[in-house]
Amino acid sequence: MENNQAIVHLSAANRNAYLELEVPARWVSIEVSRHNCKDVLLEVVDENGQSKGKPLEKCVPQIKASNIKGLRFMMNDFSTKPIEIQLTWK
Hints:
single chain; 90 residues; mainly beta; six-stranded antiparallel sheet; globular
């Protein structure tokens, strides 16, 4: 199985992003463009559509779970600093 990669950009104009994984993953590696990322919430969605959210800073550098089907990113309404999130999963 090969590694898959994606980049998510969040900004004041684009506060929400959803990344659907074609094949459920067991781990996702996360790199962020700025250290202070507690203004971004990450929800991990499983195969059944159930999600669990945490501040992004608690998920860096890697999350592990069984059957990760999607990742939903939501930036706080008061945040104005853009962020780039690089993801690799397997």
